[in-house]
Amino acid sequence: MTFPTYSLRPDGAPIQDYLSAVSRLADEVLRTGEALGPILEAYGDFVEALGNAPRRTRSELLVEALLLGVLWRTRGHEATAADPVRSALVARLVSERRRGVRSHADGATAALLLPESSFRPGHLDPSLAQIAQLLDWLLASGEYDDELKRLEGLIWFLGASHASAEHVLAGIVHWAAEFEAMGERTLGVYTARVQRFLSSELERRGAREDTLQCSRRPAEYHWNMVGAEILNRAWRADFLDCSRHLVVLPSCARIRHETDCRALGQEHALKCSHCAVRCPVSQASRAVSRLGAEALAVVHGSDFGRLLRSPALADGGVGVLGVACVPGLVGAGWRVRAAGLPAQCVLLESSGCAHWLDQPVQTSFDLGEIERLLTPDPAGRGTLVSRIAQVA
Ligand code: SF4
Questions:
Q1: Cβ-Cβ contacts under 8 Å for 37 (sequence gap 6 or more)
Q2: Nearest by Cα to 154 from 57, 61, 223
Q3: pTM of the model
Q4: Are 29 and 226 contacting, i.e. CB atoms less than 8 angstroms apart?
Q5: Cβ 363 under 6 angstroms from ligand 1
Q6: Residue 262 and residue 214 share a domain
Q7: Could you report the per-residue pLDDT of 23-79, keeping only the tens digit for each?
Q8: CA 249 to ligand 1 centroid distance, Å
Q9: Ligand 1 within 6 A of 272 CB?
Q10: Are the C-beta atoms of residues 331 and 227 closer than 8 Å to each other?
């Protein structure tokens, strides 16, 4: 099968190889990020004191801090390079977004990118002013809104309450540079085509609405992979304790073209009617139903957002397991969390829709991983509900 950027099963390798690799890297990230623990604990206290969000664990805060370093390394040069035309574009788009103007659907944001041949990783000691430029660039792009919600609080906290904010920033960026090397060593085999896609395919296609969406760099893929692993661990107990579970599948995994698929349209999502026995969406829907969960499929990311705001989920108490491709994966998990719902993430084995390929291909996912995440852990590692059930 053709895969344009990443594959969790390169050369047909078993998915377990990837799952083991990302688990090892998650352990390494948590260990190497330990030096930031006291500052992040203070930030966690500050967020909790504001009272508008539940306390985040140290591992969740480490994922956010690492994101700051990764985005500075991957986007900092683009965000701060002296260029009056691009600076004016950033200023205009930021102004529009702050006034609530809808995102451009004409490829205008593609002009925020530098040619791939000019890429330089962000230097190791950014100032707070340069980080502010990065946040503006991310806002202008329209592609990092979920991430920005996390980063703005951290930057504000560092700037307002930490005397050595730029020293802390440098520590975060050094850690992100170390992560780049660890990520390439551990996960580079799974993202081997990302750089080729950026260097040739993205520029060949010209400016499109999805150019920025498709321009994420290998370290961003690795951060999403390891972030999903760490957040799955952090959110697992809350997810399992939910009384209802919803699995959100991507419609690009359907065996039939959308005009032939007989799925029933529900509000913002599709309910499989099992018109094709070998369809992965049908098989997954039946499997999760046996585990007491419900499955729906969504076509667009915007449908996912509307589904989260739908009355069916408004009462809370629903654990949402989302299956999605790597770019933007953690952002989608944070969107679920922000809706007050515990989340779990499963990665598509590769990207295959029209954002990535002129001729889209059917995508695939590991049903075993979905079933594992829906199933309480063995004795000693389960949630309160599962432990009570075991005692009973
Ligand atoms: S089995 Fe379900 S998801 Fe697959 S093509 Fe048929 S109705 Fe659509």
A1: 58
A2: 61
A3: 0.93
A4: yes
A5: no
A6: no
A7: 999 999 999 999 999 999 999 998 888 877 788 999 999 999 999 999 999 999 999
A8: 12
A9: yes
A10: no
